[in-house]
UniProtKB/TrEMBL annotation:
Residues 1-300 form the Inosine/uridine-preferring nucleoside hydrolase domain. InterPro entries: I/U_nuclsd_hydro_CS, Inosine/uridine_hydrolase_dom, IUNH, Ribo_hydro-like. GO terms for biological process: purine nucleoside catabolic process. GO terms for cellular component: cytosol. It comes from the Bacteria. The keyword S-adenosyl-L-methionine does not apply. Keywords: Glycosidase, Hydrolase. The keyword Hydrolase applies. PROSITE patterns: IUNH (PS01247). One of its GO terms (molecular function) is purine nucleosidase activity. This is Inosine-uridine nucleoside N-ribohydrolase.
Length: 313
């Protein structure tokens, strides 16, 4: 997983780290929700909380590949205090690795972890860096599952979703790279899988460290959404990144269409928009499977079942 932890990233990491049918190989971190050092620390805290400090964490890019001063991480924008620099979890016991995230990704997919799925749920800076560093990287990766973009929605500008907007040139590199299979899980799908305060209470009642931790961060998200981005349904929030992980084991949790997606990098009002040709207006070949819907009940059931399983902390 390539993460910018991040509240929903934390829930996604917990799901990947605890689901019995998944083997979380490593986390790489990237500038996004918070500066990359905080993302690494939050990732380590999350893994410690669920007793998965065996999962190595590699720190990646501290800024977008082409825009040195764009953007500031989301959490330190004065008017959008949605994300915390530190998650409400004890300080990390474990340490990040010395190798950089792009170097690790290149090495992992060229060797031992050739069969792994690459799951970027933050800005795509590390993935673009790996592509640029190693011409074989793209061919070594069999599948990419990305949280990002939007067809009919937006959440950072009037036309863009945060992960793509935060490093549009990196996203462009990724979508033009020729990966064998990309699945894109945009806001259109994640907003179909909202989690409610009542479901957080049910989660907390499970009594495990993961259930308690996930309930806290989702409740925090719900409060943020009530203030800044109302979902239209009382006391709910999307947990974007976790939906990507859920789809790895239960593909039917999302409904996809095979479509062409290009990234806007120049528009005055549209930088970072995922331009999806969903009515086949162009002759551009489909290059990704775009999730346009999600099964909310199945998603929440997966969270509850996985976090309710006994585990160490
Ligand atoms: C995405 O942006 C980040 O803030 C979240 O972690 C998620 O990956 C949603 O737009
Ligand atoms: Ca994220």
């Amino acid at each position: 997983m390539d993460v910018d932890t991040g509240t929903d990233d934390a829930v996604a990491i917990m799901l990947a780290g605890l689901h019995p049918e998944l083997n979380l190989v490593a986390c790489t971190t990237v500038n996004g929700n918070v500066p990359v050092e905080n993302c690494s620390d939050n990732t380590l805290r999350t893994l410690d909380l669920i007793g998965r400090d065996d999962v190595p964490v590699y720190e990646g890019l501290s800024q977008p590949i082409a825009r040195a001063d764009f953007p500031v991480p989301r959490a330190i924008k004065k008017d959008v205090q949605v994300h915390m620099a530190e998650l409400p979890m004890p300080a990390a016991r474990s340490k990040k690795q010395a190798m950089s995230a792009p170097e690790f990704l290149i090495k992992a997919f060229a060797g031992e972890h050739r069969d792994a799925v690459l799951v970027p749920v933050g800005p795509l800076s590390n993935i673009a860096a790996a592509i640029k560093l190693d011409p074989n990287f793209v061919n070594n990766v069999s599948e990419v599952m990305i949280m990002g973009g939007a067809v009919d929605k937006s959440n950072i500008t009037e036309s863009a979703e945060f992960n793509i907007w935060a490093d549009p040139e990196a996203a462009q590199v990724v979508f033009e790279a020729g990966f064998k299979k990309i699945t894109l899980v945009p806001l259109d799908a994640t907003h179909r899988a909202l989690v409610s305060l009542d479901q957080c209470a049910a989660m907390r009642a499970l009594g495990t460290p993961a259930a308690d931790g996930a309930a806290s961060v989702i409740e925090h998200r719900i409060k943020g959404y009530q203030t800044f981005q109302p979902t239209g349904i009382a006391a709910t929030a999307p947990v974007h990144d976790a939906l990507c992980v859920a789809a790895l084991v239960r593909p039917e949790v999302i409904t996809t269409r095979h479509l062409n997606c290009v990234i806007e990098t120049k528009g005055e009002y549209t930088i970072g928009r995922t331009v999806v040709d969903h009515e086949f207006r162009t002759k551009r070949e489909p290059n990704c499977h775009v999730a346009l819907d999600a099964d909310r009940e199945l998603f929440v059931t997966m969270l509850l079942e996985t976090f309710g399983r006994p585990h160490q902390s």
